[in-house]
Design a protein that fits this description.
Strand content: 15-25%
Number of domains: 3
Distance between the termini: 48 Å
Strand order of the largest sheet: 7-6-5-8-9-10
CATH superfamily of the largest domain: von Willebrand factor, type A domain
Number of strands: 10
Radius of gyration: 31 Å
Number of helices: 10
Largest sheet: 6 strands, mixed
Structural class: alpha/beta
């Protein structure tokens, strides 16, 4: 019986997983999953799944197939469209499900649906060290004293010696009772990656544009986190001046100044050179903008910064141009003109939320 229940549960999970996959594009577009994150899992609303069940009718209606009628006639007793009658019912209705799915499972579904190749980390792996407790010993530093084991040993000794008094249950450990944790240092290779998000927050980037960036960055994070043991995220906002901020500030800041994209690229390059050695880190800068820049001269500076400082260090540089009624959309054309054939440069035009799904494929489809 237990095995049958396990098999049925596994089959139901497969059905739910298939339903989530089939609706994944809709979930991405609506951004339904972002606000439902838990610590390790995400709650996903799943449309009602009908399971096979018996439906009992009124005995007075006769058996199945009895009575007069022609093929195509409506079944007696079934409500027809537009023929509803009676007052509102008092019984509970049927509701959809909410299921828990881990970020890793969600990333795997995304990879399957978009046919994303697995990423091969570049460079040497970082070696991380951690302390692993391996056992108990009779000697060691006081900081590693195991109080529970020491107490048990003292209790055993007093019971064996007959000095334990149940009416006055005092346990007094002596030196020979003391127990200490033993440990060793383990070294573990770890492929680390960093995403450096940059976004134009000038007046031409509205709330709709920032919502698109927020949704897209969630899925970029999910896929890269699935491919690397460790993933860090850094956030840069810019108008005419760039500054590093936390995640919440990144998505909720709006300025009214002009736009100098070079300020963001310069800060990005500084962060890479200071904190992320190229030989040990997999580096992914992503920039989102509506395509406006202050001047042609600043665009030339941007191209120079990308060529000389950002691209040599990066696995891939992604530029997403979010359509705005106030943006010129020129910057993506300049990138195509000067860096369109560079293997590390990936651009994507994101006109609206419907374009997020193919844009994720643009950015992640190269497997870099």
């Amino acid at each position: 019986m237990s095995l049958r229940i396990q098999n049925d549960h596994a089959r139901f999970k497969d059905i739910v997983r298939g339903r989530i996959k089939s609706n994944l594009k809709s979930y991405i577009k609506k951004g339904e999953l972002i606000g439902k994150q838990g610590k390790d899992k995400i709650m996903i609303p799943v449309p009602r799944i009908d399971l096979p069940h018996f439906r009992f009718g009124d005995k007075s209606q006769g058996g199945v197939g009895q009575g007069d009628g022609q093929p195509g006639d409506p079944v007696h007793g079934e409500p027809q469209e537009g023929q509803g009658q009676g007052k509102a019912g008092e019984q509970a209705g049927e509701h959809g499900l909410e299921v828990d799915v881990t970020l890793d499972e969600l990333a795997d579904m995304l990879g399957e649906e978009l046919a994303l190749p697995r990423i091969e980390p570049k460079g040497s792996e970082l070696i991380t060290e951690r302390i692993k407790y391996t056992g108990i010993n009779t000697v060691g530093p006081e900081a590693l004293k195991h109080f529970k084991r020491t107490y048990k040993q003292a209790l055993r000794r007093q019971l064996a010696m007959g000095s334990y008094d149940p009416k006055n249950p005092r346990i007094v450990p002596i030196r020979d009772d003391r127990r200490y944790r033993t440990w060793r240092v383990e070294q573990k290779p770890q492929a680390n990656a960093v995403i450096i998000y940059m976004m134009d927050v000038s007046g031409s980037m509205g709330e709709e544009q920032k919502e698109i960036v927020r949704i897209e960055s969630f899925w970029l994070d999910a896929w890269l986190r699935r491919n690397y043991d460790g993933l860090e995220s850094r956030y840069i906002i810019h108008d005419a001046v760039a500054k590093e901020v936390d995640k919440d500030t990144f998505f909720h800041t709006r300025e009214s100044g002009g736009t100098m994209i070079s300020s963001a690229y310069r800060l990005c390059a500084d962060i890479i050179e200071k904190d992320y050695p190229v030989e040990s880190w997999n580096i992914y800068p992503f920039h989102f903008s509506d395509g406006d820049n202050w001047s042609i001269d600043d665009t030339r500076i941007c191209i120079g910064l990308l060529r000389e400082r950002v691209l040599p260090a990066a696995n891939q540089f992604g530029y997403g141009q979010v359509e705005s009624p106030y943006g010129s959309g020129q910057f993506i054309k300049d990138l195509h003109e000067h860096l369109g054939k560079h293997e590390k440069v990936v651009t994507s035009e994101i006109k609206d939320k419907d374009a997020i799904y193919p844009s994720i494929k643009d950015f992640l489809g190269g497997g870099r």
